[in-house]
Structure formats: structure tokens, C-alpha cells
Write a structure and sequence with these properties.
about 425 residues; 2 domains; about 10% strand; globular
Length: about 425
């Protein structure tokens, strides 16, 4: 008689504390939808032309009173439900976080992270260093307990948009753990809110590195940073801040390696900006740009690869139509390397100019730019392109790892 397979249980990824944050985000969205509908109502009532400026006046009379009542009722309901879920958030957490929950939080922060941070939503990720998903306590006594056999060679890995530190492990491979085994580096993984501006994360990353090296349990000989995708931009931004502030960790930085970093932006975000502009040409469609503009500051920074506060401050971040960034050179005295990927089988395939690895065009990943002051001058021997690979294959392909290992092994001989 065949045996009945044992029942398997799947842990629900949401913790009690998360309901409070999700509820607040849901009511914020409801208020936004109410504003959108009111704008549409006013446009239709005014019998506006198909093309022209958007009607921005609030509705008046009984209609206006109804919309104000809806918004007021939504706020009151949100406060009531928020108070109830807030009580749940104070309950002790009896569950450990799951990879599914970590992925959910990473995606929410990538798309809405700036809003979550600005509104104090508990779903917002606070920047921290982690090992195996556990946050490091940045004091020397705790670090000695948390890190097994720390070495004087520190490797910091910085993930990309809508991702988290656990996702450096892909298809059974983790660049950090492999470099620990092969070359003796101690890997530490940054986890951060990818929806915030790159320059904000860069500034926080710079300060966090100063804290980390100050309490490292053993004497540090070198620091290496590997950044995947947006993580490379955050790393460049942190180096810029460190240069201006003369941060101590910069003197220890020996090498930086970029994996699929959109140094000059990604066409997907530029397409989003163009779509918003097209919607804005009609007063009937313009209210729907609210939905598109809900995307985070981190995402809009990917339009051209913004790195500094000056690239976005003092203007509507959705209005940047040309690449007018302030040039941000690579840190002096630091060896810089980069690996790009293309989905095509040949490097000369014309599709690489647009498609690249599926998200980042080849020229952007290689730091090439028509304006010399924005181009990255990285020697050809410090570059490599993986063919028949997508953006995430850069985390797991063995040929990618072999280049990482060879570049970092140069100092071992």
C-alpha cells in the first residue's frame, strides 16, 4: 500500500508587526486614488478639450463636500485601524523572518521606499550590515561574538534595486562566501532601502562604513566593495562623500568591483518618464500620472544614474529630461573593475546597445558616455562581459566568479 506523503507546512511570510505598515500603506493609497478620481471628475465636469493643461482645481459645492468627506472618512478609518494594528505591532514576535518576507519587504521598499521612510512606516528598511540575514551590532564586543574568525580583509557586498542581502545567494552560489573560502575575505552584506535617493543611501553607507571599521575585531589591512546593479551606484556615491569628508575607511579601500551597474542609467526608467509625459498631454489622462509618479526616488535616479544630491535637489525628480548630472569621478588610488552582461551570444550584436542584460544596456554597464567628463576610464584589463547572461546571472555564473577571484587574487601573490 503506497504511503501517504507527509503534510508540509508553509510559514506565512507576514509577521504581526507587518500588518500595521501594510494597513498604513493601503490607506495612503486609498487617499491617492480619491485625489485621482476627483481630478478626473473636475476635468469631465469642465468639458475640457482632449489636449491641453490638466485641471488642478478642487471640485466645489456638494461634489467637493463629498470628496472631502471621503478623504476625511478614509483618514479617520485609517487612524482607527492603524491604532488597532499598532497594538499588534507591539506584541512580541514569535517567528523568525522568512526569505519570502524579506523579498516582500525588499520589493515594497524598492517601489515605495522613500514614502515609507518619510511617513515613518515600520515596513521601511533601515540600513544595516548583516551576515546570514542577522543584523550586526556595531560594537566591538558584540562583533567578536557575531563574526566567526574575522580576518583583516573585509569584503562588503551591496545589493541592487528591490533586492536584499540574502539574494547574493543564488542557485547554490554566493560570491561572498566563495571569496571567504578561496581568498580569506570576511564577507559582510549591506541591507538598505533601495527606494531612497542613491545619494541618501550613499551618505548613510559612508557613515556606516566608518562605524564598521571602527569596531572591526581585528586590525584591517584592506577593504573591498562589490556592488551589484544599483549597489554599484550607492558605492560610487559613498566614495564621493568619503572623499569630501576624508572618511577613514577610504584609506583602507583597495578595490571596487561593479556587477551590471547602470552607471549612466537604464532605458526602462527613461521609458517610464516618457510615458508620464505622454499622459500629461491630455487633461483626461494626466491624473493617472499620479500612479506612475508613485515610483520611488531610487527608481527615478536610475533614469540617468544620479549619484549626488545636486543631481535631483531643487527640482521635481520626475522632470529630469536630459543627462545633466554633476560629474562624479571614481575614487583616486582605488583599483576599479566592472563586469557587464548581455543576453546575446556575441558582443557585437546590435541589440546589446538597448537590451544589454535585459535591464542595463552594455554601454551603461561599461561606463561609456559621449560626454568625456561623465565617462568612466576603466582599463580594458579591468573589464569583462558575460555573454548569454541576464542581469541576475551576474550573481551566480561561475565565469563571473572566476574573474572576481582572479582580480582579488592579484594581491595574494
Amino acid at each position: 500500500m503506497p504511503q501517504t506523503p507527509a503534510a508540509t507546512t508553509t510559514q506565512f511570510p507576514i509577521q504581526a508587526q507587518d500588518w500595521h505598515g501594510l494597513t498604513r500603506l493601503g490607506f495612503d493609497a486609498a487617499l491617492g486614488i480619491t485625489h485621482l478620481v476627483e481630478n478626473m471628475h473636475e476635468t469631465i465636469s469642465a468639458r475640457a478639450g482632449v489636449l491641453g493643461a490638466q485641471r488642478t482645481q478642487p471640485t466645489r459645492g456638494i461634489t467637493g463636500l463629498v470628496y472631502r468627506a471621503v478623504r476625511g472618512g478614509t483618514r479617520v478609518a485609517g487612524q482607527g485601524v492603524g491604532a488597532l494594528t499598532g497594538l499588534l505591532a507591539r506584541l512580541p514576535n514569535t517567528r523568525t523572518s522568512t526569505p519570502e518576507r524579506e523579498t516582500m519587504l525588499a520589493v515594497l521598499n524598492g517601489v515605495f521606499g522613500d514614502h515609507l521612510a518619510e511617513t515613518g512606516n515600520p515596513l521601511a528598511i533601515n540600513m544595516r550590515f548583516r551576515i546570514n540575514g542577522q543584523a550586526l551590532d556595531l560594537n566591538q564586543a558584540a562583533m567578536s561574538q557575531q563574526i566567526e574568525n574575522p580576518s583583516g580583509k573585509l569584503l562588503v557586498l551591496v545589493h541592487g534595486l528591490c533586492m536584499n542581502d540574502l539574494q547574493w545567494s543564488r542557485q547554490g552560489h554566493d560570491h561572498g562566501k566563495a571569496l571567504c573560502k578561496d581568498l580569506g575575505y570576511t564577507p559582510v552584506y549591506l541591507n538598505y532601502n533601495t527606494g531612497k535617493h542613491v545619494s541618501e543611501n550613499g551618505r548613510d553607507f559612508c557613515a556606516a562604513l566608518d562605524q564598521l571599521i571602527a569596531v572591526w575585531p581585528v586590525a584591517l589591512q584592506e577593504l573591498v566593495i562589490v556592488g551589484h546593479s544599483m549597489g554599484g551606484l550607492v558605492t560610487r556615491s559613498a566614495c564621493h562623500v568619503a572623499t569630501e569628508q576624508q572618511s577613514p575607511w577610504l584609506a583602507l579601500l583597495r578595490k571596487v568591483i561593479f556587477l551590471g551597474t547602470p552607471h549612466h542609467g537604464a532605458p526602462m526608467e527613461r521609458g517610464g518618464q516618457m510615458f508620464d509625459s505622454l499622459l500629461g498631454q491630455s487633461p483626461y489622462l494626466a491624473p493617472f500620472t499620479r500612479l506612475g509618479k508613485a515610483r520611488s526616488s531610487g527608481i527615478t535616479d536610475l533614469r540617468f544614474g544620479n549619484l549626488q544630491d545636486a543631481d535631483w535637489q531643487g527640482r521635481d525628480r520626475h522632470a529630469q529630461k536630459k543627462d545633466d548630472r554633476t560629474p562624479t569621478p571614481l575614487p583616486e588610488g582605488v583599483d576599479t573593475y566592472l563586469i557587464a552582461a548581455v543576453k546575446a551570444s556575441k558582443l557585437n550584436d546590435p541589440r546589446n546597445a538597448v537590451i544589454g542584460d535585459g535591464l542595463v544596456p552594455l554601454a551603461s554597464a561599461l561606463g561609456k558616455h559621449r560626454q568625456p567628463e561623465l565617462a568612466l576610464s576603466i582599463p580594458a584589463t579591468h573589464q569583462w562581459v558575460a555573454t548569454e547572461a541576464n542581469h541576475w546571472d551576474l550573481l551566480s555564473r561561475q565565469d563571473v566568479y572566476q574573474h572576481l577571484r582572479a582580480w582579488l587574487a592579484d594581491d595574494q601573490s
